[in-house]
Amino acid sequence: LWDEVRHAMLGTIYFESRGVDWKQLIAIHPGMAIRLGTLAATDAHTVLYAIEQNLMPADTGKKLEYEISKNAADPLAMAIQDYDWADEVLHVHIGRRWLLPQLDLPPKDAVARGWELRATTAGVLDAYADRGEQRNWWPDFVRAVLGRETAVETFDMARL
User: Fold this and answer.
1) Where along the chain do its domains lie?
2) pTM flag (> 0.90)
3) What angle do helix axes 75-94 and 62-71 make, rounded to 10 degrees?
């Protein structure tokens, strides 16, 4: 969890530097932490391995996020994205060195296994449905911060 706290801190630094009242605009959702907590440790790490491998493709992943911040000429965003990218590269290498031998699977199969395991936890959050409204806060956030509609047409709550 400490790693996720660091990522959240990077976001809060950026938002607060821009005057964004993120505490009012963003719903804090512990969904993935709850879902991972239902799995055995190695299985939870396998899910995380699949997610982190998904963050690495140059055309859609952390490199693209860094290039976007660079093209925006936003030094703070660039520094944050650079750190974030380096951090995820480290995770991927740790996963390859530690997790793959544990699983005795090639990388592609480990990723597939991670997505399968993640899917098994999709219903876990149903037990929390009565604890408050579950809504997609992203469109309101984009309107408030960017002053326009979001380009994201659909949002799958199960991805959380």
Assistant:
1) 2-159
2) no
3) 170
